[in-house]
Amino acid sequence: MISRLRERGAESAAFASLRNDDYRKLWWAGLYTFISVQMQFVLRGLLAWDLTEREGALGLVYLCFGLTLLVATPLGGVATDRFDKRTMLVVSQVGIVVSSVLIGVAVLLDAAAFWMVMASAVVQGMSFGLFGPARVAFSAHLVGREQLGNAIALSLLSMNGTRVFAPSLAGALAGWALFGIGGAYLIASIFSVISVYYLLAMPRFPATDATASSRSPLADIADGVRHVRERPPLRRLVLASFFIIMFGFNYVSFYPAVVEGLYGLGDAWVGIISTGSAIGAVAVSVPLASRADSPRARSAMVIGSFGFGLGVIAFGLAPSFWVAFVVIAVVGAMTTVYQTLSNTLALQLADESHQGRVQSLMQLSFAGFGIAAAPLGFLAEIVSLPVTLVLMGIATVITAGLYAIGESRDPSGGLASQLGNGSLNGDSEPGIDELRASKVQG
Fold it and tell me: 313 pLDDT exceeds 80?
């Protein structure tokens, strides 16, 4: 009886943020956005591969995405702190809808060209530069610091849940003559339209930085960088996240090359292997949501980063599709643990007036992921794709190790550890500020 009550309590804690009506609308909006984006992610790779059949071309597509994200994300962070967050989210969705409709029509008219795929990646990079910081910062305002880890875990649950079926749906539609890649793009755009519907039902949320209007956007970006630089634990976290995602997460760029090039399978199997990653992510998301605000969150984050890198190494060594499928499920779980807890900790370490900009710096890691995809793609053509994947995993493990060493050498035992026993459990703001001040001096 007691164990059943504990289980029910854990389930209630896991979905606590969804009891907030506005957060629930944001969650549904994100769910439909991620369905659309996950479908387009697969379709863009399939179209690039069909048009060129080169790993380097896959890398170039993600390079366009990454370079655009590199510019758009800091500006998105500034805009998040300056303007209404709901408006930022709606604008991002409009960009996703327009790009998916245009490329879908081009494919149906048999007029698609490789440059169009790259242009689509640019538009989506711009949209994500607005969407990412605004959505996470909006979540923080809606649920408060005491449920921040839970809200971020549930946000990632919506993203990873769509990865269970959206990539497979995209692959199936792309391989079905009635739809093909063009029709699948149009179906993806419908999901983004549904997301706009939910966003418009949410309240407006004004700027959180009252002094922003007196500064230029570049000055705002510099202020955000300074905010991170002056807090060693936050600085370590941002830098580690950049390199871990840049090297580790690039395994998803090469799904078409692995599945079709190494294993000799068709388009639909690309969606299936992506589903394997999603299964692992979803499996860990619910228990993680109930524990994301616990004192042990930082240790779990470090373990997740090591598991992430080791999983990518194993993916590069996988001898068959189904072995790769199982490995990718583990990688998906470890990636989710790391992303959830690193984003939670970053927002806990940041002042509320800088959360949009800090989150934009965290999400620059995905710009690094896109930028690194091109040289990694060309490296794969030279030394082979499996060797490249192993090297990516090794770089991820090394970065995780350097972060762990930096935290262990912190004279106070790591501010993140102190916050794990304080702000992550709802301590008052003055106590948080005292901890931050002590580390700024360090």
Answer: yes
